[in-house]
């Protein structure tokens, strides 16, 4: 998870592509005879945050996601803004939402659009709502355990071990990369215009690999002998980010070359990931024999 505003989660895999933070200070300017004006500090201005979110069916239901943002704005209430790292930035209100539609069906259904959300710091009385302890387990977020993200903890379901988390993240990443490979193979047979039209889908499938790869890197770093898998996660993530950056920006004149470079980066990611198959099989065997 990249960040959460109230109960609205923003994830890289879900399409968030930019965040801009601005801060200001208020200064009064006093004119002086035969001299430059004098500045006097009055106080700090309100911090502002601007989020850029890509909407596409591959990244989630565009209409539902836009509706949740608009509902939050219409409630006129401050919401806690927390980064995925756990850093609490304070309460913010939604002051502006814009939706630039880039593609739609013949009946006006949004297929792809870019949403800009403006947040402004709230300095009034505010009590941050904290989720009851035990209800959510952040460690399960993004793992291939079928519980979703974040996962609900059942009293009957034991928490996964570090080794199980590593295996789960690796499996999720491999599945996403495999789906990406299939999409790239399908797209490469088209002309420049067709490939350009598929860029949102290509960015979407690579975006979904980011969270499990980050989880793999973090979880493997907790294993006594997991340094190699942690480095592998970083290497694969680097290739995935290369595949994404190759497609941004693109136009009709450069899309063929950009797509080819992106395809090569994805191939590197898959090759690196496949090189760990024997290592991961060994970890799975340890889990089955209750040694991990």
Task: Kindly describe this structure.
The chain has 292 residues and is an alpha+beta fold. The relative contact order is 0.10. It folds into 2 domains: 3-121, Elongation Factor Tu (Ef-tu), domain 3 (Beta Barrel), CATH 2.40.30; 161-288, Four Helix Bundle (Hemerythrin (Met), subunit A). It has 8 helices and 11 strands. Mean pLDDT is 83; it is low at 131-157. Helix 2 (162-187) packs antiparallel against helix 8 (277-288) and helix 5 (210-220) runs antiparallel to helix 6. The strands form 3 sheets. The protein has a 7-stranded antiparallel sheet with strand order 2-1-7-8-9-6-3. It has a two-stranded antiparallel ribbon with strand order 4-5. A two-stranded antiparallel sheet has the order 10-11. Strand 7 and strand 8 (88-104) form a beta hairpin. InterPro entries: Myoviridae_GpU. This is Phage tail protein. It comes from Pseudomonas frederiksbergensis.
